[in-house]
Amino acid sequence: MILFDFQYERARSLAEAATLLASLGPDARVMAGGTDLLPNMRTEIARPAALVGLGGITAAEPQVDAEDNIRIDALTRLAAIADSPLIRKRQPMLAEAARAVASNQIRQMGTLGGNLCQDTRCLYLNQQHDFQFVAPCYKRAGSCCYPFPQNKPDVCWSVYMSDIAPALIALEAEISIVGESGMRRLPLEQLYSGNGLKPFTLGKNEVIEAVIVPATPARSGYGYHKSSRRGGLEFATSVIAVALRLDDALMRCTQARIVIGAVREQPIRAEAAEKALVGHEVGAAAYDAAAAAVHEIKPLPHHGFTKSFIVDNLRVYLRRVLAHAVERARASGMVA
Amino acid sequence: MADRSRELSGKSQVISIEVNGELHEVTVRPRHTLVEVLREKIGLTGTKDGCEQGVCGACTILLEGRPALSCLTLAIECDGKKVRTVEGLANGEKVTAIQQAFLDQGAVQCGFCTPGMLMSATALLEKNPKPSLPEIKKALEGNLCRCTGYNAIVAAVRQASGQGVDPVMQ
User: Fold this and answer.
1) Which of A48, A56, A120, B156 could form a disulfide with A158 if both were Cys (CB 3.0 to 4.6 A apart)?
2) Is the pTM here over 0.90, yes or no?
């Protein structure tokens, strides 16, 4: 399928990218690795008049800043994150999540910022463009949501699929954003609007510059699981990312962040499951209580899976992921 | 829906790409992908244009030494960069160890996936000369073989890395 014509501008820095975006107008888009945007352009889900290419900018190596946070350049390739000795040692969940993304080639091309800003997906929306042109859906400025005809024009139930965002939200990561008027920091959780029509809260001419992951305190453990139809190269059925902390005796859970990805328009905090865990002694009963609480997540029936299948999948894997997280927290507590 | 009738402004530009050690100057529009330019403008048809969605891996090339999908790479972004394609592996009649291993193990069926497989395997072996079985599988996961000749392909990578073919694989 031949791509449509568009204008291309190469940015030499992110600040220049923001300026270029402003001068090119509202139909311009940023392209980092292009592994999400280009397939969408081929199916004409995205039809930008201009692209601002970030391929010419070299990403800085991940490094530890003065406050002991890890600072990762948004243009760092996913393969570099998966292989980075620093990230594997200090934030292994992030390395694991980066390794779970698609294929080796896509991890070598795709960037962290690009992964966080990937578009939402839906079985109807992501069809070949010939079908879409017969009847575009709301996200393509059409007049009906074909998979969910009861939906109103401001509701789009396309699903946000990033494998990495849930892990970063569980780790309380922040993003640094560069725009025409300078820089701002934002907790990653707040990047997502929860509306499939416009999934991100980024301003018009803003670009993510870096991701800042705070240091993990002692007696912390993590658990991560991506379910998908096949092992590799597949969008997730669900993603579970857990970061928790135990008390001095390594018995009671004092803090937990449970984030579920790939089930709704944005990564979801499983707050009822967190409540079922925090303050309780960890063990089979606590895992069961937390796993039972995933009923609060109302998954969208996407990719051909039913809601009940996704809830069952979450319940089974959350239990295992929590057990792993507690094991790791105990192991780290003993070393400390 | 986006306005399909608006004036499009994809101006042509001359770029220089080093392909297999040879410098090429080609005129491209922004919409041209690297695989189109390699096949249609430079005439290197070894790289295959498969799914055009970044799924099958048939178009894998090495861009600055890293495996990349040439169907998802805009040629205009490769200005001044180095590309290696499957044609750059053999030196005349002399094939590389991985190419010989593909021949020995019968790791070629219809052959459509072979150029991409060879490039992914080359990148792996250059970075990690003695990969383990899981490492081989992880490196090749982005290359689909519709003839499902995976066992022979993995055996070929093992042979090329001098590890001997795993008896389980035969």
Assistant:
1) A120
2) yes
